[in-house]
């Protein structure tokens, strides 16, 4: 039987009729949760039909009721939060966490709006602004960047050990910044993309407590906010940094994602970033216990960016659960263990929490096949960047 529905999704910004067949009885649950209403007439459009095609594909992949739950809004997982609180109580330091499963709307949080030092996790915002500039034609992956004598700074990375001058591309620099957390590469990226541009993008996303103050290992330039001395390189909250990673995963590079899905141009840009994040070199935090659950041969089921300071360990990741993608944003700080071994307590605590979340929400494990631009999700409802933050 043929049925016509009118979508009232805010992400589309107008009513459209879509036509499909009744697939199964519980489809009614999903369309009610997604705001689909029966209408009469033949006002169907091709764009509207594409929207419902995406929705039906998601329901087949991850389950009808899960998508209905996601449409209804965030659902706190009290049982999981209790378990996470127990793990946090065992940690010799502080823990702040925000996790969500994007297709079901499940949420777990512990002090998710605590303002914390970012360490190298702030590099996600540099990557995202670079993606936006490539999209706008203001930058190109193949743009030449020269490492000059005196550019190298200490800490993580490889460029510190390279002879200068050395010619790189913007893509090379960003890849080193993400995969190796290369501090010198990060500064080169900031020089090319612009510190002010990164912070303007952060504000565009509606993130109120996230800021990149300066380059790494270099004095702050100009007047600094009063709290720079406290946070150093950057500040954020688990909830806000999760939103940055979610935007990268969903490939939300436009104010309002198009109803027809992700364009080929945007998918190509997001694919470059996703490849960097999937090949993260530092894997002792969120991925630590999860990769054992991944029996596929399609690559890692996690895409992540870590951050480390003496008393800080953090990791923000997309985890491709078989029951649906998850974003995990976990920070440990004021840690008693300031060692730099793989068994640092902050790193192990993050790993235990990640394992608990995945086992609760995706007991069958993870699958790298779904870790692609868009994550198999429909465009999120959005009226621009300002709606992104709590």
Structure description:
The chain has 390 residues and is an alpha+beta fold. Helices cover 36% and strands 19% of the residues. It is globular. Mean pLDDT is 83; it is low at 1-61 and 386-390.
Whole-number count of domains: 2
- Taken from the alpha-carbon principal axes, the silhouette is globular
Low-confidence stretches: 1-61, 386-390
User: What gap, in angstroms, lies between the N and C termini?
Assistant: 42 Å
Number of helical segments with 4 or more residues: 12
Structural class: alpha+beta
The CATH homologous superfamily of the largest domain corresponds to DD-peptidase/beta-lactamase superfamily
Overall pLDDT: 83
At the first level of CATH, what is the class of the largest domain?
A: Alpha Beta
Order of helices and strands: EEHEHHEHEEEHEEHHHEHEHHEEEH
Q: Architecture of the largest domain, according to CATH?
A: 3-Layer(aba) Sandwich
Helix content: 25-40%
| Secondary structure: number of strands | 14
Q: Rounded to an integer, what's the Rg over CA atoms?
A: 21 Å
How are the strands of the biggest sheet laid out side by side? 4-6-5-14-13-12
What's the main sheet like?
6 strands, mixed
CATH topology of the largest domain: Beta-lactamase
Strand content: 15-25%
């Amino acid at each position: 039987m043929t049925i016509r529905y009118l979508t009232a999704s805010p992400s589309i910004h107008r009513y459209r009729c879509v036509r499909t067949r009744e697939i199964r009885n519980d489809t009614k649950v999903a369309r009610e949760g997604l705001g689909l209403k029966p209408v009469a007439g033949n006002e169907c459009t091709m764009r509207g039909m594409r929207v419902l095609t995406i929705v039906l594909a998601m329901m087949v992949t991850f389950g009808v009721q899960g998508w209905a739950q996601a449409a209804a809004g965030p659902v706190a997982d009290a049982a999981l939060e209790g378990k996470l609180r127990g793990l946090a109580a065992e940690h010799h330091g502080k823990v702040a966490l925000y996790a969500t499963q994007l297709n079901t709307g499940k949420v777990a949080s512990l002090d998710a709006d605590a303002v914390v030092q970012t360490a190298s996790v702030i590099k996600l915002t540099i990557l995202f602004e670079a993606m936006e500039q490539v999209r706008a034609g203001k930058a190109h992956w193949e743009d030449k960047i020269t490492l000059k004598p005196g550019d190298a700074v200490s800490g993580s990375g490889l460029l510190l050990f390279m002879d200068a001058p050395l010619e790189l591309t913007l893509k090379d620099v960003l890849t080193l910044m993400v995969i190796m957390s290369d501090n010198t590469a990060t500064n080169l990226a900031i020089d090319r993309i612009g510190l002010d541009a990164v912070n303007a993008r952060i504000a565009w996303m509606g993130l109120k407590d996230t800021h990149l103050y300066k380059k790494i290992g270099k004095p702050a330039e100009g007047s600094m906010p009063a709290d720079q001395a406290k946070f150093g390189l950057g500040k954020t909250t688990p909830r806000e940094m999760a939103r940055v990673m979610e935007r990268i995963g969903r490939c939300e590079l436009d104010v309002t994602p198009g109803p027809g899905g992700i364009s080929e141009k945007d998918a190509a840009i997001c694919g470059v970033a996703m490849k960097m994040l999937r090949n993260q070199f530092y894997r002792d935090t969120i991925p630590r216990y999860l990769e054992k659950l991944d029996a596929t041969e399609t690559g890692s089921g996690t895409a992540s960016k870590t951050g480390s300071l003496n008393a800080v360990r953090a990791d923000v990741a997309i985890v491709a659960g078989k029951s649906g993608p998850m974003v995990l944003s976990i920070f440990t700080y004021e840690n008693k263990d300031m060692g730099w071994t793989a068994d640092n307590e902050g790193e192990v605590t993050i790993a235990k929490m990640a394992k608990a979340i995945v086992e609760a929400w995706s007991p069958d494990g993870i699958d790298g096949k779904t870790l692609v631009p868009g994550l198999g999700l429909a465009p999120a409802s959005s009226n621009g960047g300002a709606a992104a933050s709590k």
